[in-house]
Write a structure and sequence with these properties.
- This protein is mainly alpha-helical.
- The chain has one domain: Growth Hormone, Chain: A.
- Helix content is 66%, strand content 5%.
- It has a 3-stranded mixed beta sheet, with helices on one face.
Amino acid sequence: MENGQSSSKTPESPTLSSFDIDVPTTEDFATLPKVADKLPWGAFLVAIVELCERFAYYGLSGPLQNYMSNKYNDPNGLPGAIGLAQTGATALSNFFQLWCYVTPILGAIVADQFLGKYATIKYFSMIYMVGIFILFVTSLPFSIERGAAFPGLIVAMVVIGLGTGGIKSNVSPLIAEQVRTKRPFVKELSNGRRVIVDPEVTVQRVYMVFYMCE
């Protein structure tokens, strides 16, 4: 019958997912401790990339002042290659640091408009390694004796600075994106203790690992 007959179909009752059941109550927030969720492996991988970048950067920045300021086969026995003296070496070192602070703007634009964070880090890491290789080759004795140390250093600084910009501008936000849980939930531990797994605490834990590697 089309008229006067009520439909036998009733509205579906809303169902609660297992996640909804574990949503903390007001009492839970007041009594239960907040803990971090288990960190994903992707977060550790991003942190290792940052560790490698910082290791390379500070590893080359340490001896760079002597490399630039002192001459090759210095009569005083000081290690060096280019002979720019203290003033020239300091100026060039400051240029390199400034360049490394400017290039993250380019890295952020490339990531946001073209490649995304992951691909940008990957490709700019390759650029970084090319710069390290250029610096290594031009710092060998036969390169220094042929006058390739100074131009090689300039090229290496520009290339390494580009690599640094692509990595530094994207590693920090990418590691936070590895935290997939967006809402707090209650979890029962193996000892029977109930805790609140809080995404904010998880992000804090992620950045503790990140800054430890930095």
